[in-house]
Specification:
The protein is globular, with a radius of gyration of 21 Å. The longest helix is centred in the middle third of the chain and has 27 residues, at 190-216. The protein folds into two domains: 2-123 and 167-204, Nitrogenase molybdenum iron protein domain (Rossmann fold); 127-160 and 218-302, Nitrogenase molybdenum iron protein domain (Rossmann fold). Helix content is 44%, strand content 16%. Helix 1 (2-26) packs across helix 4 and helix 5 packs antiparallel against helix 6. The strands form four sheets. A four-stranded parallel β-sheet has the order 2-1-3-4, sandwiched between helices. By secondary structure, the protein is of the alpha/beta class. The model is unreliable at 1-12, 23-31 and 139-158 (pLDDT under 50). Helix 9 links the parallel strand 9 (274-278) and strand 10 (296-300).
Length: 334
């Protein structure tokens, strides 16, 4: 198995390398940024990285988002244009988790001109867990683990959670790191990058304080997601008790009857008014639980990606999280 895996890896690397060389030599590849553009060329794999980079880069950086609006990052496949952009850019910012595992394959197959920055390296990581009642990950053996109740409903560790930006404190840290990285790549405009990054991070800090003030006003901080739960960092930051149908990176779409029953009973017993789902979800599971419990539903935007309409309208991490706060206030402050 190891030998076969190594052979497949080397084959993939050779294919990538040969293909890129062909495109560059024959000149028939996708259009890259204008060579006369003296700005730093920054490429981001996901929307949070894109937003933090454009805030820090301002007029001195040209920032490109690889993940198409509305696309699911877990199933995303890079195009030849994406590969060339990553190879030729000055700074490539990516998540560094399961949802963009394709990045490591690309980086190992090309001779990248610039610098790569992983968002997961900017903050302290938390271990993703299966909370009480959550649909198990495929192939996971529950008999081998202790499923006793724990704080926030945390249970079985399944790996490091990659959704680091969902806690505003982390988002601010990443923004500052991006600003410092840009400053190192372009010393002539270092003060501009660091000042812009600090200003944006300060806005995120104020948003963080607003979330703290709101949750501190609640007696019960329990939330139920009839969906995946990529919000471990958010829940940890504000001391929330959470229950969900699937883990953050779970690929399942059909929960068991036991999971549905557990979450429905949790909504009833906690007297919750809302079952939550995330962006780009069909929210059928949330609808089913809400209907059975006689409550409503609402969307929490994780900011992992945005729609074309949101992108064209100028959505930012801050605007999306501010909207989340307003919806939380409407749903929980009752």
């Amino acid at each position: 198995m190891i030998v076969g895996g190594k052979v497949r890896y080397l084959t993939m690397k050779r294919i990538f390398t040969a293909f890129i060389c062909f495109l560059l030599l024959c000149g028939c590849g996708p259009v890259l940024p204008d060579a006369s553009d003296e700005r730093l060329q920054v490429v981001a794999s996901v929307f949070p990285a894109y937003d933090f980079a454009r805030a820090a880069g301002g007029p001195f950086a040209n920032v490109t988002l690889l993940l198409p609006p509305g696309a699911e990052s877990h199933s995303y496949e890079p195009t030849p244009a994406d590969i060339l952009r990553v190879q030729e850019c000055d700074l490539f910012i990516y998540l560094g988790g399961e949802s963009d595992a394709w990045v490591e394959t690309i980086l190992s197959a090309i001779d990248m001109k610039g610098t790569a920055l992983r968002m997961v390296d900017c903050v302290d990581l938390l271990e993703e867990r299966e909370s009480e009642g959550m649909q198990s990950l495929p192939g996971h053996d529950h008999d081998e683990h202790d499923h006793g109740p724990g704080e926030h409903g945390l249970g079985v560790v399944t790996g490091m959670d990659e959704h680091v930006w969902t806690a505003p404190e982390n988002a601010a840290l990443i923004t500052r790191t991006v600003g410092n990285t840009l400053a190192g790549l372009d010393p002539q405009h270092a003060d501009n990058y660091q000042t812009a990054a600090e200003n944006y991070a300060a806005e995120i800090d104020r948003l963080d304080a607003a979330f703290f003030d709101f949750f501190d006003s609640l007696e019960d901080r329990t939330i139920v997601f009839g969906d995946r739960f990529p919000l471990l960092y958010f829940a940890d930051a504000y001391d929330l008790d959470y229950y969900a149908a699937f883990p953050g990176c779970g690929a399942q779409t059909e929960p068991s009857a036991a999971t549905i029953a557990f979450l429905t009973e949790k909504v009833r017993s906690e007297r919750l008014s809302t079952v939550w789902y995330i962006e780009f979800s069909n929210h059928l599971v949330a609808d089913s639980i809400a209907e059975a419990a006689g409550v409503g539903t609402a969307m929490f935007h994780t900011c992992h990606n945005v729609s074309r309409e949101e992108l064209d309208a100028g959505a930012t991490y801050i605007s999306l999280m501010e909207k989340n706060l307003r919806i939380l206030k409407d749903a929980l402050a009752k």
